[in-house]
Amino acid sequence: MSNLIMTSNIQTKKLLKSEAFGIQGFLRAGYDDYMSARILINHDLLLQGAIMANTAVEKYFKAILLFAQDKSKYTHKTTELLKRISIVDAGLYTQIDKSFIADLEKSYMLRYIDSAPAGFRICLIKRKLLAELDSTVSLLIDRIKFRDSSGKGYQEDKYHIDFKERNVALYENNYLLNKIPKENFLIGIDDVYEFFVDKDLGFLEVFYKTNVSGVSDK
Q: Which one is predicted more confidently, 42 or 1?
């Protein structure tokens, strides 16, 4: 059995090894997907990064739900997972930007472009996408911690190793870790990706730069 603490409500549980492995698997994969998303976005692959960001958030949500012994059928829809998060961790739910989660889910639909209906539209702005992803993951990254073998501290995971070693993939354009005010980080020339489906013309993709100013905190 493994000791596990969920920091959102200071709840400690002893879990069967199989349960602990399941949660650890989601957390490990969630962080790997998060780092993959950051790399893709920082290399201007905004749609691909948003799709990977959705899978990262999905896995963190599932880890929390598994810890809470939520028995609902799992789904790839992060908006549905977030509704269940509201039941097991209301404090976390209030801090999550619901519109950002909805945008990630929309992006995830574009794994198969032909599944997007007429009128579908999404706009992704590079630094805003990074900022919202980093902000969201910062709420999730330490939600669940495993006790170390001493029973007094916590196991060091990949995030904390990368944080201490100032891994470039984690720190690049990360307004939180680089201590940049969010409003300052968002303003300036930025890369934009737009995708929309026209009932007559089919799907259209547009890549361009824009001068972002006066962006709200959300």
A: 42
